[in-house]
Design a protein that fits this description.
Glycosyltransferase, 5-stranded parallel beta sheet, single chain, alpha/beta, about 300 residues
């Protein structure tokens, strides 16, 4: 009997403030939980593959393995590191959209669009034959995928966020993240910026502030603010209407205002947010199961 093909997930180390990194590591975990075989390939090894000879790359990676690679995986996730001797002929490599080309030389490539192609790097360098998946509609570019990308939605709720029921709220906080170059107006003078803070720090801020503004229109922090009882507002930029925005970002449909004119909706639906996110966790597992079916059909042989 032939060995099962591995899923090799190319990713930076785990960072619980990065939705993309969480998704990549959680995909590896969920695949292993479902009975597939999945491993993490640190993106630093990909960078070495580009810069060094094969022998030097192997020696550096081996040194990491012996002395401890400066690469963090979440201790509660089943995310083993790949073996150093490379990619099997039947293995399936999953690249996020920020990786150009096919640096591992795999014949079975999945390109997972966690954001719009080129958004972070300004480069779109993919290959004929790549199998595209999108995290959500906002990450898709039909000119790249042909409009046929299936959805691979990997999601979990961070339980640090809850409403502490404090008697008084005061002031505002805001997030920039993928909001791009912005100017902070006078209305946010004195507001607390949450970029770069830990989840526990952000949860404390959400519980003491009255309003949260997000320049990033696709961030889960908008939902987390609502869970904590903070009025959550996305500042419009890319979409002409709330309807267009929700169509691309269905996870944010409850408890979040699209512009300050929409605050009444955010407050009226705030209590629906946690239940909606819990339902998305179930949807996430089904999405990974579907991913296994599609990739096995495409690249040959079922488990």
């Amino acid at each position: 009997m032939r060995a099962k093909p591995k899923y090799i997930i190319v990713t930076p180390d785990y960072d619980d403030t990065s939705g993309g990194r969480i998704a990549l590591h959680k995909l590896c975990h969920e695949l292993n939980q479902l009975g597939a075989t999945a491993v993490i390939w640190p993106d630093k090894w990909v960078q070495r593959k580009k810069a060094y000879s094969r022998l030097k790359q192997f020696r550096l990676n081996l040194k990491d393995a012996i002395h401890g690679v400066p690469f963090y995986c979440h201790p509660q996730l089943n995310t083993p590191l790949a073996k150093l001797w490379g990619v099997g002929a039947r293995d399936i490599v999953v690249y996020p959209e920020v990786v150009a080309g096919n640096p591992l030389g795999s014949r079975n490539v999945v390109r997972w669009l966690l954001h719009r192609p080129g958004f972070h790097t300004g480069i779109v360098d993919y290959n004929d034959g790549d199998l595209f998946f999108k995290f959500a509609d906002f990450a898709d570019d039909p000119t790249v995928t042909g409009g046929n990308a299936d959805r691979l939605f990997v999601f979990s709720v961070n339980e640090v966020y809850r409403n502490q029921g404090l008697a008084e709220r005061k002031g505002a906080c805001y997030l920039v993240r993928k909001g791009g170059d912005i100017e902070i107006g006078s209305s946010l003078a004195g507001a607390t910026k949450i970029d770069g803070l830990s989840h526990s720090e952000v949860a404390t801020i959400f519980n003491r502030c009255e309003v949260f503004y997000s320049f990033d229109d696709a961030s889960m922090y908008s939902c987390y603010a609502a869970i904590c009882g903070c009025t959550s507002v996305v500042l419009p930029k890319h979409y002409a209407s709330r309807q267009d925005w929700v169509a691309k970002n269905p996870g944010l449909q409850f408890g979040v205002a699209y512009g300050e004119d929409d605050i009444a909706h955010a407050r009226a639906t705030q209590k629906l947010v946690l239940g909606h996110l819990n339902s998305l966790e179930n949807e996430s597992l089904e999405s990974v199961k579907r991913f296994v079916e599609i990739t096995q059909d495409r690249f040959g042989g079922r488990f």
